[in-house]
Amino acid sequence: MAIIKTKLCALGVILLAIAVPAVVAQTVTMVRPQRDPSQPVDEEYTKKIKEYTTEKFFNSPLTDYLPASKSVPTPKAVLGDIAGAPGKLPYAEDVYKYMRMLEKASPRVKVFSIGTTEEGREMIAVAVSSEANINQLAANRERLAKLADPRTIGMNDDEADKIVAASTPIYYITGTIHSTETGSPTALMELAYRLTVDESEYYKNIRNNLVTLITPVVEVDGRDRMVDIYNWHLANPGKNWPNLLYWGHYVAHDNNRDAMSLSLKLTQNVLNTYRNWKVQVLHDLHESVPYLYDNTVGDQPYNAWLDPILTDEWQIIGWNNVSEMTKFGMPGVFTHGTFDTWSPSYLMFIAASHNGISRLYETFGNAGADTIERTLSPADYSRRWYKQNPPLPKTMWSQRNNNNYQESALLISLGHFATNGKYFLRNFYLKSKNSILKPTQAGPAAYVFPADDPRPGGQAQLLRLLQAQGCEVSRATAAFTVASPVKKSDKPDKPDKPDAADKKPDTADKKDADKSAALSFPAGTYIVRMDQPYSRIADMMLDYQYWAPDDPQKDIYDDTAWTFGELNNVKTVRVTDAKVLAVPMELVRGDIRATGGVTGTGQTFVINHNTDNELITLRYRFRNASFDTAEEPFEVAGQKFNRGSFIIRGVSADELTKATTELGLKAYAADSPPTVKTHPAKAPRIAMMHTWLSTQDEGWWRLEFDRLGVPYDYISTQDVSANQNLNSKYDVIIFAPVGRGTQSIIEGMPMYGNPLPWKVTPLTPNLGKTDETDDMRPGLGLSGVKNIQDFVARGGLFIAANDTAEFAIETGMTRGVSVQPQRNLKVTGSVLRSKPVDVASPILYGYPADDLSIFCAGGPIFNVSNFVGGGRRGGGGGSRLTGRGSVGHGDLVHNRVPDEVPDSPKVNPWEPGTVRPEDLRNGINVIPPAMRPRVILRWGDNSSLLVSGLLDGGGEMAQKPAIVDVPFDKGHVVLYSNLPFWRAETQGSYFLVFNAIMNYDNLNAGRKLAER
Ligand SMILES: [Zn+2]
User: Fold this and answer.
1) Cα→Cα distances 580→489, 530, 573, Å
2) Ligand 1: distance of its center to the CA of 849 in Å?
3) What tens digit of pLDDT does each residue of 532-570 get?
């Protein structure tokens, strides 16, 4: 066995990897994968492995037998059959039961509880290694902690080498985050058994030189529901079975898009395990591609904030994996594909953003444990340059095949990593060290969060998130000044808005001609230093992204942007001046919270509306108190209050002090209310309406409503279809994006075949805690559409975003709003600029009359009109036709005195055209002024529309309405073309919805009606 020397310069390997990947594979020759002939085999189990594997070449010499053990039980002890057997899909509890049996039977196994899910189910991590390694886990962790934070050893490479020599690396495998991808729990049960008992040289090498850490089920809530559904399917042969509508409590597939926001328990628990154990590899198992796509090598563009050492590690490990599996003769193994590694939101990316190695397999699953014939498309079965032994066009495929691939590939990776553990540990140290050297290498030196941010709550929330990511946050103890590089390349193009920090009055001198102007910040400013081990994740989250419209990667895998400062509406300043690191500052210990409380005395309390999300928490916490909201800005005792600020009565000072202190809100007590026009800010009864088609995207809305303590009834389109008086129960109905068209929402699923129940029964005990139905198929129906229309007509508020906004438009609730077909627009999860149009609308309360960055997933392009059926007449407007003169001139009619051409008012893209007197002569289609759509927010100008990410053909969307408030009889429909709630990343947009909710019966406040 040839071990790469620890001292081998990483660069040498990089060059090899780039030049000839095959050469790299040769440098990492491993222990020969073969069983120990002197160890007995579990004959019965081995026979079953052969029986359930549909072709001999769908297995490897590492997994085509099972070693026997006198003392350690096989997975059969819990499953009643072998791992991967047809018809066997264990609940998480059964998987844990088995892992704990292993722990009991062998000193080589230890099980750790790592937290619980949203619904209270346990998550575990299982460590398997040699007895000696298991016995010194704590000491090993202490050593790894020094490599993870080289500051602790004075960045001393020699010292690091000594620690590397004494340490054992940790390889962390996570299974079934995606609940329909069902194979990994049984594969990981069997893998744990093999690693525990197999005495061959191959397995011993792994056991002695590596700690394998396994979380067999990541999405535990979803796993249990998936097993329910599968069991229902087994109990109802020949019938169609219900789709797995709910995976986790909130989201489905997007549970693997949370690694930046950390809003889900599973992400928090895996991140904490990763950090606590000082893990080197985080390897997440998925099933969607035949037969094994080792996808981190994938395709470009790679995430732009990664250490190149990591991207080379991907190549080295990925190619070794393909190469070894190729030698086994297992078809369909490859590592190049269309997956780009741009977005850092995947669970595995916790490692990539924290100096480890992220890995991901896509194997081939059958969404359950049935053995079925699988027919592939040419794109999958054709031989490609990177896939010389492709999958079969057609074959019988079993869960056991899938388990064979998962285990064999993992064992190749584990063997490779065990053999080269010292090499990868040294890389781990180097990556951690590079993260600390960031200020003196590529930079920046720090990200600065000014102490005078108008949204201290939003700022604290974002800083707490960075803390949860493991970042150290410091606080300046005095005011300070640093140089601003004013390097064009460091800032996004913001022609309409001076950089946040440039606006500081502290600099006093207004020599704005001086481009190297210093940046000054008050005492109390937060500083996220980049000379710390986890600087990379902060940089990744806070920096700007740019995806070139002509990038060769056309299959963009996910969002192209996430800039957290922008989407949180929190000021962040990227500082490159290393002087910032010398500013007097203190490390903040404990969670960062905004300062709240009550100042002064009196029975009336005033709270500024700054769009901090805790304001709605406060409103619902004192649901029965009197909250008035100011329709204009005002001042009290020299203190400025924004439009929308609260004037509260009927709450005791003690209660309010307690609540505002906890929530980080500042209240000012006064004897009498300020003199300003107000209306009540309500805490209305909310319903969140979902379909039985998809609940993926609305889950992000529910998650944040729950977190912020905004109560709602969770109802389905079927409930709405059956309720003719929705107003008796609700004031506001939210219909968050579904991702299906209007026709599907109304029709639901086809009514052929049998009913599809989603409910708790003895056979399906885990389908509760969200919603239930006897039959998922029926949709909203025309009666549901009518009931929603009646609800709004009687004074209700209907909130719709993206595709559900189109639903509202298509079902006739939004006269004067139409959707413009998209031609060349391309926005793939980008941050775009918006501008307020009507700052007096309650929907913009608390927002500055300034640009606002919002998230766009290519949402509908709205047009507004004053006429039913659309049409943006411009009072006889339109551009000039061919003739004399230039574009701004008029043509001439010869031999006649020139005509007097009436001025035609300019109509902006976000405005409806004007109504001329002649339109009113027979004004059947003219919408009365009070019933016309009111544009609240619009998309920015084309030249400055893009903030972060990808935007192509932006002219189609530029200046178009982004949020439209449409009166409908006594109620309102509010339409969003942005995504106000998205993956817990868009905290700065939430109040665009919360304002609508609290002002649902006063949305016309501040409205100026047209004269005709
Ligand atoms: Zn998946």
Assistant:
1) 20, 10, 12
2) 42
3) 999 999 999 999 999 999 999 999 999 999 999 999 999
Structure confidence at residue 674 (pLDDT) = 94
Q: How far is the CA of 897 from the centre of ligand 1 (A)?
A: 74
pLDDT band at 809 (very low <50, low <70, confident <90, very high): very high
Each residue's pLDDT tens digit, 577-597:
999 999 999 999 999 999 999
d(CA 812, CA 664) in angstroms, rounded, equals 42
Amino acid letter, residue 606:
V
Q: Tell me the CA–centroid distance for residue 255 and ligand 1, in Å.
A: 10
CA of 331 to the centre of ligand 1 (A): 21
Q: DSSP letter at 629?
A: E
* Ligand 1 center from residue 394 Cα (angstroms): 22
Distance CA 845, CA 234 (A): 54
Dist. CA 251 → ligand 1 center (Å): 13
> What 3 state SS string does 452-468 have?
CCCCHHHHHHHHHHHHH
Residue 899 confidence (pLDDT): 84
pLDDT for the residue numbered 29? 54
Ligand 1 centroid – CA 415 distance (Å)? 25
Distance 478 CA to ligand 1 centre (A): 49
Question: Is the distance from CB of 113 to CB of 243 less than 8 angstroms?
Answer: no
Report the separation in Å between the CA atom of 67 and the middle of ligand 1, taken as the mean of its atom positions. Answer: 31
pLDDT band for position 441 (50/70/90)? very high
Q: CA quadruple 151, 156, 161, 166: dihedral positive or negative?
A: negative
**CA 362 to ligand 1 center in whole angstroms:** 7
Tokens of 314: 């991907």
The alpha carbon of residue 781 and the mean position of all alpha carbons in its chain are separated, in whole angstroms, by: 32
Cα–Cα distance list, 540 to 306, 314, 484, 535, 682 (Å): 9, 19, 21, 9, 39
Q: Letter for the amino acid at 735?
A: F
What's the whole-number mean pLDDT along residues 981-988?
98
**Rounded CA gap, 320 and 323, in Å?**
5
Residue type, 127: A
Question: Cα separation of 798 and 805, whole Å?
Answer: 10
| Listed residue (670, 782, 801, 682) closest to 724, CA to CA | 782
CA separation for the pair 98, 81 (Å, rounded): 13
Q: How far is the CA of 655 from the centre of ligand 1 (A)?
A: 47
Ligand 1 geometric centre to CA of 542 (Å): 27
Span 159-208, pLDDT tens digits = 999 999 999 999 999 999 999 999 999 999 999 999 999 999 999 999 99
Say how many Å lie between the CA of residue 939 and the centre of ligand 1: 34
Residue 31 binned pLDDT confidence (cut-offs 50, 70, 90):
confident
CA of 178 to the centre of ligand 1 (A): 5
DSSP conformation letters of 739-781: SS-HHHHHHBS---SS---BS--SS-TTS-SS--BS-S-B--H
CA of 359 to the centre of ligand 1 (A): 13
Give distance in angstroms: CA of 558 to centre of ligand 1: 13
Output the CA 222–ligand 1 centroid distance in Å: 13
Q: Could you tell me the distance, in angstroms and rounded to a whole number, from the CA of residue 96 to the centre of ligand 1?
A: 22
* 969 Cα: distance to centroid of ligand 1 (angstroms): 46
* Cα–Cα separations (whole angstroms), residue 468 to 435, 464, 999: 18, 6, 34
Banded model confidence at residue 148, pLDDT cuts 50, 70, 90:
very high
Average pLDDT over residues 236-264: 98
Residues present in the chain in total: 1012
Mean pLDDT confidence for 856-879: 81
Whether pLDDT at 235 is above 50: yes
Distance 332 CA to ligand 1 centre (A): 18
Cα 284 to middle of ligand 1, angstroms: 9
Give pLDDT, residue 83: 98
Residue position matching structure tokens 């003196």: 440
244, 226 Cβ separation under 8 angstroms: yes
